[in-house]
Design a protein that fits this description.
Helices cover 44% and strands 12% of the residues. It is α/β, with parallel strands linked by helices. It has one domain: TIM Barrel (Alpha-Beta Barrel), CATH 3.20.20. Strand 7 and strand 8 form a beta hairpin. The structure holds zinc ion. The site of zinc ion has 7 residues, from loops.
Length: 302
């Protein structure tokens, strides 16, 4: 039976059993132009849907629940959609993270080219949102061979592009035998991304036309697991995927379910990464080699 002080130390901010953190990857047209190389009107209009149809619904949902989110915004989207970015900034409770300049892949570019894009991209986001991005998500969940060096150089607090755990951890990059990095990893997963379920495309073929009820079942079960483990539930959504009426209603139901627990902490990625790091330092385990993801609480079933 853990002592009360041990139990408190194992909780987020000494009082929350589980952290919930939502990403909105606001790619707009750059997903189609930057990742798929499609610049004709119809694919580009799928990016346009983000701004016209989906973001107002996402804002209405987050506002109604009064919860923060982390918006991952390619710098080109800040160039092209200043009004939509102002809508995010004016809420005052959301975080904005770095997500490439053009939603470009960083797998095959040189260190210097990636540094130049990151420098320009950070400056563009600072100008638009009046805050320096402290988190990175390399598109599309693909950290490049040089990105970790640059994240340290630009003093990022966290990355969210790797898959090495289902709880925050301190990553090694290269993954096999590389050094422990100075930033926290908030790992992603395809299970907790709306795109595999909801992104349909003929070219390249992607089959995502799942029913919202199937996805709700998976996401609720994932949350239940994170809750039991005293961990962190990180969900990634894309406006053009989640923004359709039945899907936004499903996300509403999921948020209401998670809010029904009185010891769940809704926070931005940056706040979760900062708190996780603080707890590790306090426990004296930040510098531990290959330490497990913990600290985990004494699990009790609910
Ligand atoms: Zn993206």
């Amino acid at each position: 039976m853990p002592r009360a002080s041990e139990k408190m130390a194992s909780m987020w901010h000494s009082r929350y059993r589980c952290a919930v953190t939502l990403s909105v990857d606001f790619d707009a047209e750059t997903l189609w132009s930057g990742t798929f190389g499609l610049t004709t009107p119809s694919p580009m209009s799928r990016g346009d849907y983000d701004v016209r149809a989906a973001l107002p619904r996402i804002h209405a949902l987050l506002d109604r629940h009064e919860i923060p989110a982390t918006f991952m915004v390619p710098a080109q989207v800040a160039d092209e959609h200043p009004d939509a970015c102002a809508e995010i900034a004016q809420r005052g409770r959301h975080e904005v993270g770095y997500h490439g300049y053009h939603h470009e892949s960083v797998l095959d570019i040189s260190l210097d080219a990636e540094r130049e894009l990151m420098k320009r991209g950070i400056a563009r986001l600072e100008q638009t949102f009046d805050a320096t991005p402290r988190g990175n998500r390399s598109p599309p969940f693909a950290l490049g061979p040089h990105t970790a060096e640059l994240l340290e150089e630009f003093r990022f607090v966290y990355d969210s592009s790797l898959f090495g755990h289902d709880e925050p951890y301190r990553p090694r990059v290269p993954v096999s035998g590389g050094p422990l990095r100075e930033f926290v990893e908030l790992p992603v997963s395809w299970e907790l991304d709306d795109a595999p379920y909801f992104l349909f495309s003929f070219f390249p073929y992607m089959s995502g036309l799942s029913t919202p009820s199937q996805v709700l079942e998976i996401w609720k079960a994932e949350f239940d697991g994170s809750y039991r483990a005293g961990g962190c539930f990180l969900l990634v959504v894309h406006p053009f995927c989640i923004g359709r009426h039945p899907r936004i209603a499903m996300l509403d139901e999921l948020i209401a379910y998670m809010k029904s627990f009185d010891d769940v902490w809704f926070a931005t990625h940056l706040d979760v990464a900062g708190e996780w790091r603080r707890r590790r330092i306090e426990a004296g385990t930040w510098d531990e080699q290959d330490a497990a993801a913990g600290p985990a609480p004494a699990a009790t079933a609910r």
